[in-house]
TrEMBL record:
Residue ranges with Polar residues bias: 643-654
Organism in which the protein naturally occurs: Urocynchramus pylzowi
Membrane-spanning parts: 606-626
Membrane topology label: Single-pass membrane protein
A biological process from GO: cell-cell adhesion
Gene3D superfamilies, alphabetized: Immunoglobulins (2.60.40.10)
Principal localisation: membrane
Extent of Basic and acidic residues compositional bias: 663-673
Sequence similarity: Belongs to the immunoglobulin superfamily. DCC family.
Region described as Disordered: 643-754
Name of the protein this chain belongs to: Immunoglobulin superfamily DCC subclass member 3
InterPro entries to which the protein is assigned, alphabetical: FN3_dom, FN3_sf, Ig-like_dom, Ig-like_dom_sf, Ig-like_fold, Ig_I-set, Ig_sub, Ig_sub2
KW Disulfide bond (keyword) present: yes
Length: 754
């Protein structure tokens, strides 16, 4: 049986009930287990003493002879009752039963007179509170309403709906409320059906929409929705979250009321009632929420267990419900208090008992409770203690070896050592809870253990148990010792050049260095032996600027962390500022204020630059066009000169002077007629050397043209008339009497490109 201890368990527990004034009340409680068993009752946590009014029956049930909501002394029989059962194995407490008196208040909503036209909808409502919930019936003209009439709909909350009204529906209506406490009648209301059925169009309208409801699983929910309009609107239902309502347990009452039977938690949600005009999208909506609660129930019960002394016992109790239940643990009927060796985890779902002993042997109960109800389950812990187990190990000592190592030694127990199969060393940080403890197993012939991988400057507790095949000994005395401290780890150092005289040293946050008090920073020129420093920095500092440095030398920067145990290893970095200086010379620092001002006119500068660029391109194109035209003119002159008889070079030189340096009078004459070309202008446009002209074009220099051709007509030379002629050089001695600077003929190279 889940949730039961075989030594003691409940068969029947008291349940919630509603009692009638001045009537007897019986609360049932039945227990099974190993005799003798004692049963007692409590009300609101206080023990009930047998009296004339309340006493316990032979089967353990509680009998209240005359239930009273309020007695003469001001006390009341209402409250929460539970029964307790106890034997020598432990004590159990039942679930709490809530007992309330049956009552009925006066009507706080009475039906109202109504005048409705024929074919319309009439609605009457009564409302009254009571325990249990009163049943409300309707009378017309002092006779019960005929519920077989499909046009009459009675809702559980005291609502009467009449649809498709007719003249015979007129009358006097009132309601009757009944429960075990009383019967009450409401005031009367008259219904008058007037005129004939109207054919005037009316928009759909919802007279009454659904209310917000909070119910418990397995109950029935009725969501009201009554609508009017002409033509008669169609009522439909949906969920606001888009999930389907389903069909199982769903029923429509009357013309649009939604009834959901056998509620589950999944039925919770917001429901939307819509009144639609037939054949159109015209609609009106109303909505209400439905909250379905579920009493607490167990998904996993705690199980009775047996554990040897000194081990750990774990009970698991998982419950569900809506709203989620709260879990409470009891030991032998008393609320369980947590301690160093008793821990609750996972929202009280897991109970762990560490290092159990005889005092922990008891019945443990898990109580799950929410607003919809409560439940309980129990399990028993049996602590195993075998005769002849070893006594606790003796002389436990712990000695610190290093910052991360402690050696623990002990002596064998004084009694019952023959069956020992080994020892278990229990290790825990002194500041940690018991559940953080861990163990290391040691062979039976070993009486010391080196515990490694510990944290520096930390206190640890140790104790030993001796184990046999039948169980463990009691724990030895606990010894506490601390590891040695150690110097901090080496920090990671990074150097960043700020400017020509400043560098910034940065390092990782201090949490990665272990326990330390701060940092020491040193720096020096590499060719010197003396450091500048130390610069002492707090543990929360992670950067430092070193200023007033010499840009022409290399510096060494050293950083270390220190604490009360000494200085840690240092990290060294080298840095040179020379490259920064060179970059500064090549790229002087900007004038930020000036740049900011310049940025304001940058757009104008870009536009001006574009205009200048376009102008340059236009001039280049014009230059190329005129240049090509001038070259064509030169080719034409060459063709004409080549057609004349060749003369010696000495006779051509003077003529060449005329072409290359014509007198002002000749130029003026040519300018007047507009048909002659200024050869100086050609030379200005085409300044290439004669040798370069011959290599690129295969054309002879203008200096070799005949003197007889002192005028040149502007014409175009067709490309098919152009020919390449190789001139054989005929060097002549220079005339020593010619002192004109233009007289020497250039030394032309042969044109071999043709």
């Amino acid at each position: 049986d889940f949730g039961r201890s075989s030594e003691l368990a409940f068969v029947v527990e008291p349940s919630d009930d509603i009692a009638v004034q001045e009537q007897p009340l019986i609360l049932y409680c039945q227990v099974e287990g190993i005799e003798p068993i004692t049963i007692t009752w409590r009300k609101n946590g206080v023990m009930i003493v047998d009296s004339e009014n309340a006493f316990m029956l032979a089967n353990g049930s509680l009998y209240v002879s005359r239930f009273q909501r309020v007695r003469g002394d001001g006390s009341s029989d209402e409250g929460e009752y539970d029964c307790m059962a106890q034997n020598h194995y432990g004590l159990l407490v039942s679930r709490k039963a809530k007992i309330q008196a049956a009552t009925m208040s006066d009507f706080h909503i009475h039906p109202q007179n109504a005048v409705v036209e024929e074919g319309g909808v009439a609605r009457f409502q009564c409302q009254i509170h009571g325990l249990p919930e009163p049943v409300i019936l309707w009378h017309k003209n002092s006779m019960p309403v005929n519920t077989d009439n499909e046009r009459y709909t009675l809702l559980p909350k005291g609502v009467l709906q009449i649809t498709g009204l007719r003249a015979e529906d007129s009358g006097i209506f009132h309601c009757v409320a009944t429960n075990i406490a009383n019967v009450k009648f409401s005031r009367e209301a008259r219904l008058t059906v007037s005129g004939s059925h109207s054919t005037v169009y009316k928009d759909p309208m919802i007279l009454v929409g659904p209310e917000n409801l909070t119910l418990t699983v397995h109950q029935t929910a009725v969501l009201e929705c009554i609508a009017t309009g002409n033509p008669r609107p169609i009522v439909s239902w949906s969920r606001l979250d888009g999930r389907p309502i389903g069909v199982e347990g769903i029923q429509v009452l009357g013309t649009g009321n939604l009834m959901i039977s056998d509620l589950t938690v999944q039925h919770s949600g917001i429901y939307v009632c819509a009144a639609n005009k037939p054949g159109t999208r015209v609609r009106r909506t109303a909505q209400g929420s439905l909250v379905v609660q579920a009493p607490a129930e167990f998904v996993q019960h705690p199980q009775s267990i047996s554990r040897p002394v000194g081990t750990t016992a774990i009970f698991t109790c998982v419950a569900q419900g809506e709203p989620p239940p709260q879990i409470t643990w009891l030991r032998n009927g008393q609320i369980l208090e947590t301690s160093d060796h008793i821990k609750l985890k996972n929202n009280n779902s897991t109970l762990s008992i560490y290092g159990i002993n005889q005092a922990d042997e008891a019945i443990y109960q898990c109580l799950a409770e929410n607003s919809a109800g409560s439940t309980q389950a129990s399990a028993r812990l049996t602590v195993l203690w075998a005769d002849g187990l070893p006594s606790p190990p003796q002389g436990v000592r712990a000695e610190t070896v290093s910052a991360t190592t402690i050696q623990v030694s002990w002596e064998k127990p004084l009694q019952n050592t023959k069956e020992i199969i080994g020892y278990v060393l229990h290790i825990r940080k002194a500041a940690d809870p018991v559940e953080m403890e861990y163990q290391e197993a040691v062979s039976k012939s070993t009486f010391q253990q080196l515990v490694t991988d510990l944290e520096p400057s930390t206190s640890y507790s140790f104790y030993i148990k001796a184990y046999t095949s039948r169980g463990a000994s009691k724990a030895s005395e606990v010894t506490v010792v601390s590891t040695l401290g150690e110097v901090p780890a080496m920090p990671s150092l990074f150097i960043k050049v700020i400017n020509s005289t400043t560098v910034q040293a940065t390092w990782e946050p201090s949490i990665k260095l272990g326990q330390h008090e701060g940092f020491k920073l040193y720096y020096r020129k590499v060719h010197l032996s003396q450091y500048t420093g130390p610069v002492l920095l707090a543990s929360n500092i992670t950067s430092y600027n070193i200023t007033h440095l010499d840009a022409s030398v290399v510096y060494e920067v050293k950083l270390l962390a220190y604490n009360q145990h000494g200085d840690g290893n240092s990290t060294v970095r080298f840095v040179s500022l020379r490259e920064t200086v060179e970059r500064t010379v090549l790229n002087p620092p900007c004038d930020c204020m000036k740049d900011e001002q310049n940025n304001k006119t940058s757009t104008t500068g870009i536009i001006i630059g574009i205009h200048i660029g376009v102008t340059c391109i236009i001039f280049c194109i014009l230059f190329l066009m005129f240049g090509y035209r001038g070259r064509l003119l030169m080719c034409k002159n060459v063709q004409e000169q080549l057609s004349t008889p060749q003369i010696p070079r000495s006779q051509r030189s003077a003529t060449g002077l005329v072409l290359n340096g014509a007198t002002r009078r000749d130029r003026d004459d040519r300018d007047l007629n507009g048909k002659q070309l200024d050869m100086n202008e050609l030379e200005r446009l085409f300044p290439a050397s004669p040798s370069q002209e011959q290599q690129e074009k295969g054309i002879m220099s203008a200096h070799s043209l005949s003197a007889s051709h002192d005028e040149t007509q502007i014409s175009t030379l067709p490309l098919d008339e152009f020919s390449i002629i190789e001139e054989q050089p005929d060097p002549l001695p220079r005339n020593p009497h010619d002192s004109s600077p233009a007289a020497p003929a250039p030394n032309h190279s042969p044109a071999n490109e043709g």
